[in-house]
Amino acid sequence: MSAAAGPGGGAPRPGGWGGTDGSGGAPDGEGLFPLPVSGPVPRVPVEIAPGAVHVPGWLTVERQRRLVDACRGWARGPVPMRHTVLPGGGVMSVRTVCLGWHWQPYRYSRTADDVNGARPAPLPGWLAGWGRAAVLAAHGPDGGGSAYAPDTALINFYDDGARMGMHQDREERSAAPVVSLSVGDRCVFRFGNTRTRGRPYLDVELASGDLFVFGGPSRAAYHGVPKVYPGTAVPGTGIRSGRLNLTLRETGLSG
Ligand SMILES: O=C(O)CCC(=O)C(=O)O
Ligand SMILES: [Fe+2]
């Protein structure tokens, strides 16, 4: 993680509701001089802004592989993964495929009218279940995880040169959080404020298996991916190069 001035103005801090390995949940004053850590760096949730939580290494390699295998299938159809064309004629550098609802800038529809007119594949129940578990892991037992009912997923694939500019996820008519899962190459995930594309923002490094959830006061924060680090994928996930990101959302739409 780099940079310092987060939208909340403070330094990143471990999630206050308690880490599961005993290293991140100490009440204030008790964790100032923790025992030296040997072995892997503890993987505890870090709340980088109110409602925005990074959980490193949340997905096992086996689950990453399951996700990659599923995404490979969805990338073939019924709506093939493609570079989205923006209304002004620009072309996004990531390639995208959606589940449940089709997102095209800047709306959701049941059919992929800017691709081949087909209905996207449904969002499977197991993936919605991962979404509920993700909100629980990030926001704790009182954070609404059991009520989380995502009905769409956006799947983005970044090759070495792909980026995503600062934007808000604002086509949804629900205040429910966005759940982001990453597999493959590491990246810089820039997480900003709700008012402007610019500073203050915090640069978070997202690695293979990482979870990032943003909801509550951070739901409308600008965010983007200014850099992917080629050659940093971990073995065993099924991705040798490039980065896969899947975001789950509640659209709040019906029909
Ligand atoms: O790739 C990422 O980590 C973020 C993707 C994103 O912001 C989006 O799909 O709206
Ligand atoms: Fe986004």
Automatic annotation (TrEMBL):
Stretch forming the signal peptide: none
Ranges where the record places region Disordered: 1-36
Domain Fe2OG dioxygenase: 149-252
Biased composition (Gly residues): 1-28
Alphabetic keyword roster: Dioxygenase, Iron, Metal-binding, Oxidoreductase
Enzyme Commission number(s) of this protein: 1.14.11.-
Alphabetical list of PANTHER family matching this protein: ALKYLATED DNA REPAIR PROTEIN ALKB-RELATED, NUCLEIC ACID DIOXYGENASE ALKBH1
Name the UniProt record assigns to this protein: Putative DNA repair protein
Organism: Streptomyces clavuligerus
Lineage: Bacteria, Bacillati, Actinomycetota, Actinomycetes, Kitasatosporales
